[in-house]
From TrEMBL:
CDD domains documented for this protein: 7tmA_NPYR-like
Keyword Secreted: no
TM helices/strands, residue ranges: 37-65, 77-101, 121-141, 153-174, 202-224, 261-282, 297-317
Record's subcellular location: Membrane
Name of the coding gene: Cni-npr-10
SUPFAM superfamilies listed in its UniProt record: Family A G protein-coupled receptor-like
GO CC annotations on file: neuron projection; plasma membrane
Keywords, comma-separated and alphabetical: G-protein coupled receptor, Membrane, Receptor, Transducer, Transmembrane, Transmembrane helix
Main localization category: membrane
Organism encoding this protein: Caenorhabditis nigoni
One family name in Pfam for this protein: 7tm_1
Protein name per the record: G-protein coupled receptors family 1 profile domain-containing protein
Residues of the G-protein coupled receptors family 1 profile domain: 56-318
A Gene Ontology molecular function term of the record: neuropeptide Y receptor activity
Amino acid sequence: MFAFISLDPDTMTPTNSCRDIRSYLWETKHDLTLHPITISILATIYIFIVIVGCTGNLLVVMSVVRFKALQSVRNMFIVSLSVSDLFVAIFSGSVTPISAFSKVWLFGAPLCRFLPLLQGTALSFSTLTLTAIAIDRYILICHPTSEPIRKNLAFKMIIFNNAIAIALSAPLFLKQELVKYSNFCGEFCTENWREDAHLRSIYGSMVFIIQFVFPLAIITFCYASISFKLRNGVFVRGSQKELMSEARRQLTQKRLRTNRMLIIMTVTFALSWLPAVGFNFLRDYSALPGFIADQDYLFGIISHCISMASTIVNPFLYGYCNEHFRAAFVTLWDSVKAACGMRRVSPGNNPACSQLLSTHFESTTRRSITTVPSSI
């Protein structure tokens, strides 16, 4: 999906000696990704993304696994997103920049095929999972009398989303190959559609529609409907008894905060991946603007770097917007400090920590929703 090899076949003539691709690109295109300053800046950014992305998403996974109070349907989808981001941060965040800077493939034929499959699958799986989260929220809030998504169904949806994502990305696996050019030193991992070159554009368009257009349309409808409902009425979980207006107000505000967090998460994901998806889409149709085509390596790695930022945003959103995730992060950090022999900080009177460890909280987080008219 992120192939940076774009050599002109007319320049590849059989010779007895090979030429360094880096020197060739510097002489012919003055490729800025060969400049030490560019490499230093981008390498620093990638190292930061990999470390923070792995740490943050690992915290999310460990929090949900450890605390039963966090094991809701929505958080099952969130964990699946975090696991996907972990794989992307580890593999894509290391292999892609190294290949972009070295210009040759150093990781063997199996990873040449596997990495594009992983990246394509992760992107498709993330958009489908974000869509599943939006649908889950939509059913709970806009159709409270309908049967909500249960954990067993959520698990099946996660497996189904993963299967669809793999199927969508399978052509990347099949068309990717490790090649040698007789007049350039080293091996190159690139897409090779051969006589089916015209199908590459069709495939790219189809994936763009399924990955972005349809999911974002569904997500927009769901969250727009939820926002309208929340701002025109009060929705509370629990018994059917009349509740105090202050309690209803607090619950509504909590729902609004959760809704804002999920909307921000979706918008951030879309904006971070848009440059990379747009770059590949335009390249498939040979429609890149001239100044971008002249520095396609540079703009390719920059767009990929921006997309990688999505792996670090979500854990910060969970910690900032969700008090229970925040409490779980604090508790896990205390455990790490205790394991290292440092003094453990007690959660004290923090209500979020107390509720997080409460079995009653887990039993009341997914009850039926009662709609109370806003006039009450």
